[in-house]
Amino acid sequence: MSAAAAPDTLWKTRYLDAIVESRRGSGQPVREEAAARLSPLGHAHLNCLGRYAFTTQPPAELRPLRDPNARDGEDDGEF
Fold this sequence. Notes:
By secondary structure, this protein is mainly alpha-helical. It has helices at about 5-25, 30-35. The two termini are about 30 Å apart.
């Protein structure tokens, strides 16, 4: 794994875990075989040949999860 992909993969891992736990906590079904196949390794949006500067510290807490019932872009807030 490249140095550029490692932070992205860690970030996705934390959010995938938060999403699964959020669904379980709200009583929504999460099939174990589906959860076992989740992978944070998809990183086509990363330019692994470029230069990267990570100058800020990661946040101490995760930002709120997206509302799964909202349409795309509806709950993005600042985006």
